[in-house]
Structures
1.
Amino acid sequence: MSRKDVQDRSTLILIKEFITNSQSLRAYQEVPPEKTKRWWRKKVLKWKKDGLHKKLRQILDVLTARYEGVLYQILRHSGVSAGALKSTVTAVWVSCQDKILTLSDYREFSAVLWESYVSVSPVEARTLRPRFMLRQIVDEMPSSDERGVLIYRAYDTASSIDPPGKEVLTKLNKAYEMLHLELLKQGDDLEILTGGEIALEDIKNFEAPFAHYEEWFFPE
């Protein structure tokens, strides 16, 4: 599996693979010594573990990059100093990796990642939870300028330097429409995927210009 293959996968697919491979690696690490007495069994076990380590590094590189912006945002909002941001983000992912080893449903990943953030943060940035939970769903939208603008404006720290111009606002409005269709597609999974933050019942009657989405992405 090449790095490009990993980068081309959606966030939800990467989450599934991250959990599955992490749990498989732990299982191989816990194989008792008496079952690997023969040299060829040790070699096979090492080959399997090395392969999983490589896959996990590739997946984690992409996942951490996709969540980096929003994690930095919520940690700043929580009062973490600029000098401590990088180490705190690392602590979030270390905590998350421990928690997913017993996770039975990949749809609960974002809730687990949020819990990991809460465990290392001085306070909880509750107003940014909807934006955080929507990160995985935004990647499920069709690839387009509108999706790119939404990701940049909502999840890239540099985007907050300048207010959006008319063209950007037009693309954001279109992106909200696309996001709405994607959320409807998730159906009953939506509530689980977002840790109870957003349910189908909450959004099914939303209409353009989808002001609720703007409030979730850009709370005052």
Note: The radius of gyration is 19 Å.
2.
Amino acid sequence: MFAGDVPLDVAKSWERHKFVNDPRWRVGCARREEIARRWVDGLAHGGLTRQEAILLIADKDVPAQNSAPEVCWVDVLPTRENRNQWRRSHNGGPICVAA
């Protein structure tokens, strides 16, 4: 298989190399190579369930010092009209909109 003019395994290796060698990406995370491999494989081959994809996006994008990212449905988030009126506990819990 090819990605453009490059064999797929070479292209995947290059993409993993870009992630792992970026000094700003996942600083202090011991799993950088594993996350980069999973991300590139997921993009190249697909086949992830919705939950696997969401967890992979969180692994890739959430800073390493954040220990508990939370996924919620879009309809739970405040609308543009009340975006400055919502509150949430610093340790999680439901989103409350002040009326």
Note: DSSP finds three helices and four strands in the chain.
3.
Amino acid sequence: MRSLLGWVVAVVMVALAACSTPASPPTLEPTATLPPTATMTPAPTATPTPTPTATPIPPARLELRWPEVVSVPAPVPIEVLLEPPPGGSLDAEITATVMDPGAQVYATFELTEREGNLYRSPEPLQLPFDPLPGAWWFYVQVSAPVPVVGDGALFFHIEPIENRDLTEVLRPGTTIEIPVEFDEVIAQGDIWAGGRVWRYGEGEMALWWVPGPTKDFTDSNALVVLEATYDAHGQRDTAPSPLEVMSIEWQGRPGFEFSETWPEPEGGPGRAWVIQGSDYWVYVLRVRGVGTPDIPMLHERIAETFAFVEASD
């Protein structure tokens, strides 16, 4: 009985199992899908372009040419040396300036003459006959297509002027400053009537004196005295030609100025002043160029030092 009951239970269980609907599997909630994260692509790094290095321009080198001793009688050549860069050539404009101890411009020069790398002014520096004491300044300015190195300025001092002692030579009551560098080439006469001639470089200075007329001093009187001085030069036969004459005063004393042309071989222009002093003596003061077309400026400045002074007892 018990076996039958067990079988029946088993059959019933199988039947129930066959008739029952199988359980559905659990439904899973869909999981939200996250959007893909954007991947940052790094920007390409720019490769720096190397900056080209400028090729240095070699400089030109400046060198001033200047004498060790500067004196009034000796004109100073204005010249500088400008060496171009190695293997190159150079054209430059150069200006030179001289300033006195008072910081005033005394002279300016354009260095327009050129010989190789040497630049030169056509005219030298002629210093004043009575220069200011102290340090003078010489400097140059260079305009060039390349850099310029080197000292472009210097200071200099002017040697004191030493003049000849003419106290025993000239007429009492007259004076003139003749530097010792001037050579005496003619010496004639005495204090009563005579003269001296000095030369330096390409110029000549002369001073003559003779008793003059006590009446009116005329250009005819002056011409007679002037022509008498030509004999002293041995040039009566080939005498200079007085070209023009004008009336002047020299320290309030009457006189005449003559322009001259002296013949070759030592010819050149001349200026002569024929002046009558208060003692009626007549003085012939002359400057001239010797073998040159110009009268040296130095000689003209020295002529300006001729003066009448109080005669010492």
Note: The CA atoms of residues 41 and 47 lie 18 Å apart.
4.
Amino acid sequence: MSTFNRGQKVLSELQKIENSARSLRPKLRLVAELLDKEWRISSYFCEIKGPRWSYYAGDVDFVMPLYRIQLTDKYGLMTDQILIPADDWEAMLALIRRIIENTKEAA
């Protein structure tokens, strides 16, 4: 599958996750699984509490992140690598931010 087609497929899957009735944590778990499946990127999401980034959802076995990406004031993404063309990566991050901003957390 070409990089362009893969990027479009991932964006389509992210939109399905966004439109699902799930709460935030399960959605972010699915996003992390999708990144691993399609791009072999291990990742997890963190809740940001001041200087501390606390695990929230994603790959629980992932140990050593190389990248720490703040997505919103409250949530960030830790990942080991970014093997995605820059345009696809930015589009995915924008959609992930939208998922976070538009999804309620479970009570």
Note: Residues 25 and 60 are 13 Å apart (CA to CA).
